[in-house]
Amino acid sequence: MNSDDSLLVLQWCDVSDEGCAALTSALRSNPSHLRHLDLYRNNLGDSGVKSLSAVLENPHCKLEILK
């Protein structure tokens, strides 16, 4: 994460649906100022994508870019 906490790059980190669920839980409990989340080349399945999309519906979520 960069110094202003607005970017989190997790490229090629083998993030699975389970990891995505943990990330989703963290984002729900602390919406923070994260604006850019990069999950390029991970192992997200349908359930991981669905849990992340649910976070985007939260009006407190600041996420603008999801890769």
UniProtKB/TrEMBL annotation:
Pfam families: LRR_6. SMART domains: LRR_RI. Keywords: Leucine-rich repeat, Repeat. SUPFAM superfamilies: RNI-like (SSF52047). InterPro entries: Leu-rich_rpt, LRR_dom_sf, NLR. PANTHER family: NACHT, LRR AND CARD DOMAINS-CONTAINING. This is Uncharacterized protein. It comes from Hemibagrus guttatus.
